[in-house]
Design a protein that fits this description.
554 residues, alpha/beta, ABC transporter transmembrane region fold, Rossmann fold, 2 domains, 5-stranded parallel sheet, 4-stranded antiparallel sheet, 63% helix, 9% strand, binds adenosine-5'-triphosphate
Length: 554
């Protein structure tokens, strides 16, 4: 149980470190609450012996008032301690999720193509939470439970060490039970996490392709996977339910042993009845933290499976990364050049580009054409540094793109592809996506230049109309014009247009040509297209040969 926990801590504790003062304060407060509880039971023992046994009501008020005060104090410090634990836990969640997401942003398109988005969502949500339950709040809970056990056990020893011995005799049993439990539960938790990922993956996929699912879908797919997940959760629940039951039996045996032994001690006049009551009350406090420590194995098991799934993401090698020496030279002028570029995709033998050369000067529009599979989109991917070249260099303003910070490079390039990306939000949000600080006037001006203003104004709430995920309310051509407005507002010096009209029919395609021409004005533009109307806009045309005929130079 400890070894996997150590791995989880080794990798994730650095993230919790910034919260260690908070975690420490929470632990101190919770320990103080346990101290208050110990005092309360002590008072109970006194009340039993002095007040109840002698029927002396006058002696009741003072300890009763102190008890009430201690209970109040315990409530206050306990709740503040709980809140601080939650706060530290939430902060940890936030930084872990940010770290994983920031790493995801450095990974290649291949990485995402091979994985289901829903599974990634599950990793970023519930797996992150399972790690937090151990490394964040788990640390406080374990520490507090350990200290509580020590407090209550010490007080029990002070009351009667013989009884205390009888009470703690059960602890080795707890340890054995917890280890047995941990072994079984770890495997079950792994299966449960994986099945959860699978199910969310399919749900996300089906939701994203609902029309296809409605027409051709296998209706039972979500149900089947849901059943698999349910089974693994039930297997976990069986263990989860069995464990407290077994603990309960062990505790009962131990309480009976204590009462039997206590009765004997009372008969020998070595213990008062108040002492025995207080002792029984101590057991009521002692066992819950021991139980919590036993449950730790479940937390560790879930955190281990969750962390394995997170580490798979965090350890995925980015295909490109920022050089430590990368410096942002500021906004580029837009001179794009490919110098004898050779490229093959990872895990493939055949080069897609070989000795490819191209120069696009600021303000120039170059169309790149060629057969399907000739490598046109690859040219765009290399410029945007989704991959690095195998040979040769890609340069922006004469600087090798590998030496620029990725964020600076991508800030200077706008990408418009055939699949127009829309986000859940209003039309205005979507236009301002690349420049959230844009004013309404700037947004409207961009929409006007993109020939989108008329249709936007005809929508029920104009610029404030919610377009929903993927812009379901808009036609393909309208979406493309919103995307053009977005690119206009982002105002990057370099523009990559990847088949911007290929998913549009004739009239819709015609309507975006003029906005595209306006967008390209004054920028260095690489226009990947088969569309002769777009090719006609180009200053130059580069035709990529069928794979591996001969290098192209213009
Ligand atoms: N991630 C990848 N891994 C392996 N091979 C890839 C990958 N992406 C593309 N390819 C291959 O590289 C070649 C060039 O792909 P690319 O997408 O650049 O072609 P294209 O000219 O843009 O084609 P189209 O006009 O059909 O979009 C194709 O043969 C394709 O199968």
């Amino acid at each position: 149980m400890l070894a996997p926990a150590r791995v989880v801590f080794a990798r994730f504790w650095p993230l919790a470190r910034s919260n260690r003062r908070l975690l420490g304060a929470a632990a101190l407060l919770l320990v103080a609450a346990a101290g208050c509880d110990t005092t309360a039971i002590w008072l109970f023992s006194g009340i039993t012996d002095t007040v109840l046994k002698n029927g002396d009501l006058a002696a009741f008020w003072r300890p009763a008032a102190v008890w009430a005060g201690v209970a109040l104090l315990s409530g206050v410090v306990g709740s503040v301690g709980q809140y601080l634990t939650a706060l530290a836990g939430e902060r940890f969640l936030l930084s872990l999720r940010d770290k994983v997401f920031a790493h995801l942003r450095t990974l290649s398109p291949d990485f995402f193509a091979k994985r289901q988005r829903g599974d990634l969502v599950a990793r970023l949500t519930s797996d992150v939470e399972s790690v937090e339950a151990l490394v964040g709040s788990g640390v406080v809970q374990t520490f507090t439970s350990l200290v509580s056990v020590v407090f209550f056990a010490a007080a029990a020893v002070l009351l009667s060490w013989e009884l205390a011995l009888a009470a703690v005799a059960v602890i080795p049993g707890f340890v054995l039970l917890a280890r047995w439990f941990a072994r079984r539960v770890t495997k079950l938790a792994q299966v449960e996490r994986a099945r959860h990922g699978l199910l969310t993956g399919v749900i996300e996929e089906d939701l994203a392709n609902m029309a296809l699912v409605q027409v051709h879908g296998r209706p039972g797919r979500v149900g089947e996977l849901g059943l698999g997940w349910m089974r693994s959760k039930l297997a976990l629940a069986r263990f989860g339910a069995l464990y407290p039951a077994m603990v309960y039996v062990m505790e009962t045996v131990s309480v009976l042993a204590v009462i039997g032994f206590g009765a004997w001690e009372i008969a020998q006049h070595r213990l008062t009845i108040g002492g025995l009551f207080a002792f029984a009350a101590f057991l009521g406090y002692l066992y819950p933290p021991i139980r919590a420590l036993g449950q730790l194995s479940l937390t560790v098991a879930q955190a281990t499976s969750g962390s394995a799934r997170l580490l798979e993401l965090l350890d995925a090698e980015p295909t490109v990364r920022d050089e430590p020496t990368a410096v942002d030279p500021g906004r580029a002028k837009g001179l794009v050049s490919f110098h004898d570029v050779g490229f093959r995709y990872p895990d493939t033998d055949e080069p897609v580009l070989d000795g490819f050369r191209l120069i696009v000067r600021p303000g120039e529009l170059v169309a790149v054409t060629g057969e399907s599979g000739a490598g046109k989109s690859t040219v765009a991917r290399l410029l945007l540094r989704f991959y690095d070249t195998s040979e040769g260099t890609v340069r922006l303003d004469g600087v090798d793109v590998r030496t620029l910070p990725l964020a600076a490079l991508r800030r200077d390039i706008s990408l418009l592809s055939q699949e127009t990306l829309m986000f859940h939000g209003t039309i205005a949000d979507n236009i301002a996506y690349g420049r959230p600080d844009a004013t309404r006037d700037e947004i409207v001006a961009a929409a006007r230049a993109a020939d989108a203003e008329d249709f936007v104004q005809s929508l029920p709430d104009g610029y404030d109309t919610l377009v929903g995920d993927r812009g379901y309310r808009l036609s393909g051509g309208q979406r493309q014009r919103i995307a053009i407005a977005r690119a206009l507002l982002a105002d990057a010096p370099v523009l990559v247009l990847d088949e911007p009209t290929s998913s549009l029919d004739g009239p819709a395609a015609r309507r975006v040509i003029e906005p595209l021409r306006r967008l390209a004005g004054g920028r260095s533009t690489i226009l990947i297209t088969h569309d002769p109307r777009l090719v006609a806009l180009a200053d130059r045309v580069v035709h990529l040969p069928d794979r591996l005929s001969f290098p192209v130079t213009h």
